[in-house]
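Exercise: predict the fold of this chain.
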Amino acid sequence: MPGKFALAFDREVLAKASEGMHVILVTGTNGKTTTSRILEAALLNSGKSCLLNRSGANLLSGITAEFVCETDRSGNPCHEYAVIECDEGALKQVVPLVKPEIIVVTNLFRDQLDRYGEVMHTREEILKGIALAPESVLCLNADCPLTASLGSEKPNRIHYFGINTAVGDQQERELSDARYCIRCGAPLSYRYYTYAHLGSYSCPACGLVRPIPEVAAEKILGLTEVTSLILLKTGSHTSEIRVGLPAVYNLYNALAAICAGWVLGLSETALSEAVGHTRACFGRLETFDLKGIRIQMILIKNPAGCSQAVDYVSAIEEDFDLVFCLNDKTADGHDISWIWDADLEKLAGNPHRKAVFVSGSRAEDMQLRLKYAGIPENAIRMEKDYPALLRLLKKESHRVFVLPNYTAMLEIRKAFLTSADGEEFWKG
């Protein structure tokens, strides 16, 4: 609302409030919030003052509010740097006003079909934004063919990040988001996968190949449920680095932040400390203690993210309860058909999976999806009242994983704050 008021008075207010700042915009389907948090920490470690849209308000009005609230009485910015998470569709509105020094694109997946349409439309929206910033440096995910191809269409200086080794199951998978070459339309071939359609790809028909990333995980030395260890390559330099978050998708978030920090000239020490000491931000592997019961929340909002969350949960070697919370509000996307493309079948035969709960305004849809995934219907319990749900979880006494989409995450997180040790998301 403050941003809407400010824009009503002056459509150029964002340009004035960001004038002279070094602005880094982070966009893409998944990973924007975590990547932005890591990069902010690296700048602070380097002694830089930094603005971050911590609340996650990533449309034009929300970004405007963040900048306007961080100006002095003369309207001048209070910070030297700004790391801004930006919605893919809003990029073309924000770019000409803030004139970003760097644009980071994390990845591209199918997301919010009723708002974005298919993933190629999302890619076109990002291209429109990049076209308005020919002087911006692009940091692109080399392992995502849709993202990496952005670098071939614009004159910007480009740096790539990626993972130079296979991860997990290497069986051929359904690559619904990027099955065909963006250049000639032929089916892509993969030397190895990391997850979903990410990996080392090439086109046998036209010769398109994955770019060689300058910032890369050369080897994955260890992956646990709380942290990761990689051999990191930045340019010609290699070093071991710890990532303070688990899961392969967080390796990409760390690499994206390191790539942008490397372009900015930040020190290896500042970057490694930021990556190693980063903690889960609201809803993204965030942990609560509910009177002795450990609850971990993993935001899911599209098939790729949901499948990665299921992979993470499925690797846990202890008994656990599951809670799926599904809403269909505007911020979520009204089309929730994506749940049928997520790999939920892996949960059916897991011996550690105990109680399964569904909640949210579309709980019935999630219940049906889990039934078709192979979980017996009588094993799935529906509870739409969050305080009542928390009471049920206390009785179960197992470790709990809560997988909500965006507005459901905000709702159930608020309920946790009355019973657990969490804090409001803008303070984290």
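Check your answer against the key: The chain has 14 helices and 17 strands.
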